[in-house]
Amino acid sequence: MLNQIEGLHHVTSMAKDARLNNAFFTSRLGLRRVKKTVNFDAPDVYHLYYADEVGTPGSVMTYFPFPNIGKGRPGVGEVGTTVFSVPEGSLGYWKERFEKDGVAGVTAETLFGENRLNFDGPDGDSFALVEAKGDHRAPWAKGSVPADQAIRGFHSASLRLRDAGATEELLKFMGYENVDQAGNVKRLAIANGNGADIIDIETLPGAAMADLGAGSVHHIAFAVENRQKQLEVRKALLDTGYHVTPVIDRDYFWAIYFRTPGGVLFEVATNEPGFDRDEDTAHLGEALKLPAQHAHLRAYLEQHLQPLGD
Fold first, then answer.
1. Which residues, 6 or more positions from 95, have their beta carbon under 8 angstroms from its beta carbon?
2. Of 223, 263, 230, 232, which Cα lies nearest the Cα of 247?
3. What radius of gyration, in Å, describes the C-alpha atoms of the chain?
4. Which member of 4, 136, 145, 265 lies 3.0 to 4.6 Å from 229 by CB, making a disulfide possible if both were Cys?
5. Domain containing 65 — which CATH number?
6. Which of 271, 225, 219 lies closest to 245, judged by CA?
7. Domain residues for 88?
8. pLDDT tens digit sequence for 151-179
9. Which of 78, 178, 211, 194 is nearest to 137 (CA)?
10. Rounded mean pLDDT, 175-184
11. pLDDT (mean) for 112-131
């Protein structure tokens, strides 16, 4: 069993409209945009990062907004719901806020003994807030949500699978342990993690496969401290028979990727070097930052990319 994984690092999803996406995560959810850059493989498309004040691993929601993308179709073989942690007693504030702002899909429930508020993102993305006990992570205190109600980071993410078996075994190999079950949902958690410690597996044997599009999660990333620990994880996965990419420099972290038995794309990302490597912390996410190989496109991209309205 691996001991290098610290919990979630980030979740990356697809969107259609960059401006609406930016407004939802900064104005509606009160997160900080910590980076405005572009997709490495499609530089005419933004890569937007939203998080706490500094982009702490375990708090980072990222998006590729493709203007011409079709809507995703939910199903199995994908991340289902991305869940954020909020302080105990804050869901009343959030319910009122969402209703005032016209956020869709708002429903309250209790799952695994935790109060939970489900809601949809602008593209039908599946999200929830959970009142998490003892989450002492600091929120982005200068955003649109008061600090005593604000999002602390990720609480968990769910995987929707036809058969949980092989993916459950993979997660256990990665250091997760079974901690609870409710109906067709198994909860696994990593001990002494970074706060974003939980993965829920929802088993749906008869469901259709998901179709990637706007509102879909592209991949889910797990955090390791540094490149050495990432290499240890990569070797262990290769030795176990997984097809793992070489290490890829993503400017703000190094990444490796592999496809899980249930079809979900996993990434293992380093905590280093962080989002302040090319911007002062006070000004994160303000300027358009380009990967070195796309720097020559700046004039074109600054004219072509949709203004975010901030």
1. 106, 108, 117
2. 230
3. 18
4. 4
5. 3.10.180.10
6. 219
7. 8-304
8. 999 999 999 999 999 999 999 999 999 99
9. 194
10. 97
11. 97
Q: DSSP label at 282?
A: G
Distance of alpha carbon 127 from the chain centroid: 10
Distance CA 116, CA 180 (A): 17
Q: Which amino acid is at 217?
A: V
Q: What is the pLDDT of residues 43-91, one digit of tens each?
A: 999 999 999 999 999 999 999 999 999 999 999 999 999 999 999 999 9
What Cα–Cα distance (Å) separates residue 183 from each residue in 79, 97, 187?
18, 31, 11
- With residues binned 3-state (H G I as helix, E B as strand, rest as coil), the percentages for the chain, rounded to 5, are 20, 35, 45
What is the three-class DSSP state of 195?
A: coil
Confirm if 173 and 258 have CB atoms less than 8 A apart.
no
**Domain tally, the chain:** 1
Structure tokens at 33: 């945009």
Mode of pairing for the β-strands spanning 198-203 and 153-161: parallel
3 belongs to a structural domain: no
